[in-house]
Amino acid sequence: VTVVEKADSSSVLPCPVSISTKNKMNFLFANLKDRDFLVQRISDFLQRTPDSLWGDTNPLSLIGSSGSHNVPLSSSTGSDSVQKGRHYHPGLPTARQSLLQLYHRDGPEDLGPKAMKERMKEEAWNIHFSEFGRGVCMYRTSRTRELILNGIPESLKGELWLLFSGAQNEMASHPGYYGDLVEQTMGLCSLATEEIERDLHRSMPEHRAFQNEMGIAALRRVLTAYAHRNPNIGYCQAMNIVTSVLLLYGTEEEAFWLLVALCERMLPDYYNTRVVGALVDQGVFEDLTRAFLPQLYEHMQELGVITTISLSWFLTLFLSVMPFDSAVLLVDCFFYEGIKVIFQVALAVLHDNMDALLACSDEGEAMTILGSLIRI
């Protein structure tokens, strides 16, 4: 046995427990009278299992739901953290690499147009670094903005997001903080962890990185660690979508500090229970719409649809409605210039759909137009 976790209950399968084995077989046991006790007991045995028994094929990052636990990855270094059975340590692949690096597809595709475009972007950035520095010593110039508008190459997104958001400074000044949070939250059950568990498999389910336990477990750890760090926010829907993208381009620790920057500085009060910050910005967005698109504003007010549809745009940074490549380009711009980019894109979306929206006779029709995939 490698993983034990509580599964979602249903009328058909009440109080189920899912158990996975080393050879990737899964078993589901239902109608258990004392599920919590059983999960805890099996987890205790797993934690006491010597690392040597797992061999080289030990599953990576095996953490289940709020009542599940992972097995420490075996390591030839014999570090203290592994010997003590810590749940999180630098041996995890997601502690060293982004999910995109782990799931990068090698082969003929690397010679395609997209790969060539990425290499050209990387070369342009390397030239920029040689002239204006790299990391915290880099100068921000008009050329920096041009490069960002062209899209940051995948290999540099995580590094530059950390730099532009200020998350790099916080991460450097709090070494080991994220790992300690993961340790403290392992096995804890709360309202936040239950909400996180419900949303884990809704986070970019189409991406291969989140179609297996390693990606899901990394997302679970980051969201749970942040909920423990900031109980005033805990967990809010939309955080899972944003964090899943952060994990594609950064390690777990990097994604965590980017989430901290997002929730606590760049979008303050967006992700609390009442989404106060987002609602305030909806008021600002309505004012901007009235100033720049007065005719459309009057019509949309009659339909009562502006705030309803745009709230999700702001909370997810358009990641929930745009094609992935376009949305990630927008995230590049957001980390460089802040929330004004979201206002600009939201206004552009209304402007581009103005004729169709003016022709709408009811709220549902307008929602259909604005809820469809946006392409830029």
From TrEMBL:
Residues 65-82 have a biased composition (Polar residues). Residues 151-338 form the Rab-GAP TBC domain. It holds the Pfam family RabGAP-TBC. Residues 65-85 are annotated as: Disordered. This is TBC1 domain member 9B. The lineage of its organism: Eukaryota, Metazoa, Chordata, Craniata, Vertebrata.
